[in-house]
Specification:
This protein has twelve helices and eleven strands. The strands form three sheets. A five-stranded mixed beta sheet has the order 8-7-9-6-10. A three-stranded parallel beta sheet has the order 1-3-2, covered by helices on one side.
């Protein structure tokens, strides 16, 4: 165990209002030198922040100085930040990351193959992909209850014939993402009447679905608000979504045997069911992200 003092600085507001081009080496928040490990996320949603907080806490417990940058609003921002050294560690999702790095890559449901491809693309950027967890969180297209009943929607295929009458809500970057609007058109022939940019699986999308401002929304498969609000998950019957195992990324210069073991130990204990439960603790029960992460780590002998 390292003897370095633990200094935790919450610096999420640093990037508020910044564009991707604003995130560069000169914006590094650290004041602690090369021993500081900065943990970040791709998008400020509960699941991502819970897992990032787990990474931060196990590193702190081992004696590392940790800072948090938990308000990066997109994968574009967080990946630029990682490659530029603004952050050092973040949780990611395998296939979404692979196709972000190379839109022509061959994503699939094979997590090991997706991880191999992704690791190769990251290596030249000085980034290492660690062991994927068993926990998966895929994009989940849902209909609000009224729409599902009106059009008898149960699958993504059933959506194609009526999508032209409906408004879809999801992340602002959805029109550029292969698992979102482009994939829906290519795989299912889905074209919506309108698209409303909202958030990445967050409260704006949930509220818009409840108010019928959008009839179809993009949430995450581990989101407990789906069941809580009676939304109908549409079965991905043509398999648009691929392996999305939650996986740590780290700048290679920050990686050592101990850090690898600490982060991989978190991954080894994550499951889809457990992540869904933890997200529910935050978004439904109102518990604090750090408290939920700490409870999981303590219960699993990681602190």
């Amino acid at each position: 165990m390292r003897a370095a003092a633990v200094v935790v600085v919450v610096v999420g507001a640093l990037v508020a209002g910044c564009t991707d081009s604003d995130v560069g080496p000169t914006r590094r928040p650290s004041t602690g030198g090369s021993d500081v490990i900065v943990v970040g996320v791709s998008g400020a949603f509960a699941e991502n922040q819970i897992v990032a907080e787990m990474y931060a806490q196990v590193l702190e417990h081992a004696g590392y100085t940790v800072e948090r940058l938990l308000e990066l609003r997109s994968r574009e921002s967080s990946q630029n930040a990682l490659e530029a050294g603004v952050i050092d560690v973040k949780p990611e999702y395998l296939s979404s990351l692979l196709l972000f790095l190379d839109p022509n890559a061959e994503a699939s449901a094979d997590a090991a193959d997706v991880a191999r491809q992704t690791a190769g693309l990251l290596r030249s950027e000085g980034v290492t992909l660690l062991t994927p967890s068993a926990a998966q969180d895929t994009n989940q297209f849902v209909a609000n209850a009224e729409t599902a009943q009106r059009f008898d929607l149960t699958t993504m295929s059933s959506l194609a014939a009526v999508a032209g009458q409906l408004t879809f809500g999801g992340p602002p970057e959805c029109p550029q993402r292969p698992f979102c609007l482009p994939g829906l058109h290519e795989v299912y022939g889905v074209l919506f009447d309108d698209f409303t940019p909202l958030d990445a699986g967050g409260p704006l999308t949930v509220d818009a679905l409840k108010a019928d401002e959008v009839q179809i929304g993009l949430l995450f498969s581990t989101d407990p608000s789906i069941g809580q609000n009676g939304f109908v998950p549409l079965v991905d019957d043509r398999h648009l979504q691929n392996a999305e195992n939650i996986t740590p990324l780290i700048r290679s210069e920050k990686l050592n045997v101990e850090v690898r073991a600490l982060l991989d130990a978190v991954s080894a204990r994550l499951s889809t069911e457990k992540v869904t439960e933890l997200v529910g603790n935050v978004v439904i029960d109102g518990q604090d992200v750090a408290t939920v992460a700490n409870g999981f780590l303590t219960a699993n002998g990681l602190l």
